[in-house]
Amino acid sequence: MKTVFLHIGTHKTGSTSLQFFLHRADAALRERGVLYPRAGRSERLWFAHHALAWEVLKTAEAPKEDVWRALKAEIEAWTGEKVVLSCEDFSLCDDAQAGEVVGMFEDFRVEMVVYLRKPTDYALSAYKQHLASNGHRSLAEHLRDFAERCDYLSLVRRWEACAGVDAVRVRLYDRARRAAGVEADFAEMIGVDFEPLTPFVGAPVNVSHADDVLRTIRAVNRTARNVEKYAKSRRIVAGIARRMRRSVYKNHYAGRALVAAMRPWFGPDALQGEVDAHEWKRWRDGVRERHRAFLEAYVKPENRRYLKL
């Protein structure tokens, strides 16, 4: 029976770098009996299976064609025994959606794979991604709504409870990163010799920008949002903001000048310092009990330091 390894993220745990690696190593993996399907990938994010997750989540980018049928056909035609699917947006599925995903593989053995990192690091890294994705919220606002995403106990049990899941593989992002890397860890986990695949490992992808860059981007986003309320042409405002962001990200002269001009307004603290120690403690206390239960249930004592709250 074929085994489907369903990698569900989470976000900000090297998922994009892993997906690029799997895409580059496609042919080499096939030679070793592992299929990284071409069906289910989106046109925009062609290196992973976002179209599958978006269809289940019913997002604005959900595909119009039946991507699940195409995926099943590709898997059934595959003569090997292993299949790898990867999309961090699967981690956003609720109970019913997770059941729907697993139900698609009723004729196969399913192993769910999830990489996790320290909740505080996860929350902060996700906030930086929010800013890089044109967000404008404050860190305090972000933390208030992000605690649920750090409930690893509910996340793992949601998928574990799905009829048809044969195993749940909880992987520790920081442990993997400090060793040979997430790519090597994943290859070992699915039972593939990593050594011949090392040429397909690329530079890290989707790495967070420096804090002063992100603060500048946030200022641009907030200004554009406020100006759009009164502007005659929102399209013009959006275009100007887009060019400013591009200049900052690409470190052009104008972008560097803007970051330098904004820096005195930010103060010496990093983004994390925008929420004082008392607020951080309150946030940790809010997730502590569930996190402790998760560690006791799924992580060996000697490895719990990698998910320390």
In short:
The chain is α/β, with parallel strands linked by helices and 309 residues long. The chain has helices at 15-24, 26-31, 50-57, 67-77, 95-103, 119-132, 139-146, 152-160, 173-178, 182-189, 211-228, 234-249, 253-266, 277-298, and strands spanning 3-7, 34-35, 82-86, 109-116, 165-172.
N-to-C span:
39 Å
CATH architecture annotation of the largest domain: 3-Layer(aba) Sandwich
**What is the C-alpha radius of gyration, as a whole number of Å?**
21 Å
Label the overall shape. Answer: globular
- Provide the number of structural domains: 2
Secondary-structure element string:
EHHEHHEHEHHHEHHHHHH
Number of strands: 5
Category by helix and strand content: alpha/beta
Strand order of the largest sheet: 2-3-1-4-5
Output the CATH class name of the largest domain. Answer: Alpha Beta
CATH homologous superfamily label of the largest domain: P-loop containing nucleotide triphosphate hydrolases
Helix content: 40-55%
Residue windows where pLDDT falls under 50 for at least 5 positions: none
Strand content: 5-15%
> How would you sum up the major sheet?
5 strands, parallel
Mean pLDDT: 93
Number of helices: 14
> Looking at CATH, which topology of the largest domain would you report?
Rossmann fold
